[in-house]
């Protein structure tokens, strides 16, 4: 997934992260040929973690195939 589709998915993911309440916990796992997690465990939806997640999302790039096995 590249270009417009990737941009749309990043916007959607940022929307979801920002919609989390203070009682929520979350993580983000990006997978393509490699697997990269936002954090090694779920984190509280604090303003600081949401901001860090937005940076993680901004840095996401399309690369390679789909390694869903390792992501799971």
Task: Please give a structural write-up.
There is one protein chain. The chain is α+β, with helices and mostly antiparallel strands and 72 residues long. It is 46% helix and 14% strand. The protein is built from 3 helices and 4 strands. The strands form 2 sheets. Strands 1-4 form a two-stranded antiparallel ribbon. A hairpin with a 3-residue loop joins β2 and β3. The longest helix is centred in the N-terminal third of the chain and has 17 residues, at 3-19. The chain is globular.
- What form results from the Cα inertia axes? globular
Oligomeric state of the chains present here:
single chain
Elements, N to C (H/E): HEEEEHH
- Helix amount, in percent? 40-55%
Low-confidence runs of at least 5 consecutive residues:
none
Distance from N terminus to C terminus (CA atoms, Å) equals: 19 Å
Write the layout of secondary structure elements.
Layout: H1 3-19, E1 25-26, E2 29-31, E3 35-37, E4 43-44, H2 47-58, H3 68-71
Antiparallel strand pairs: 1-4, 2-3
Quick description:
With 72 residues, the protein is an alpha+beta fold. It has 3 helices and 4 strands, in the order H-E-E-E-E-H-H.
């Amino acid at each position: 997934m590249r270009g417009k589709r990737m941009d749309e998915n990043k916007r959607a993911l940022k929307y979801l992260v920002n919609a989390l309440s203070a009682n929520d916990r979350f993580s983000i796992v990006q997978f393509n040929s490699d697997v990269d997690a936002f954090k090694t465990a779920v984190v509280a939806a604090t303003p600081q973690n949401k901001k860090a997640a937005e940076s993680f999302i901004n840095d996401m790039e399309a690369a390679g195939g789909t390694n869903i096995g390792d992501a799971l």
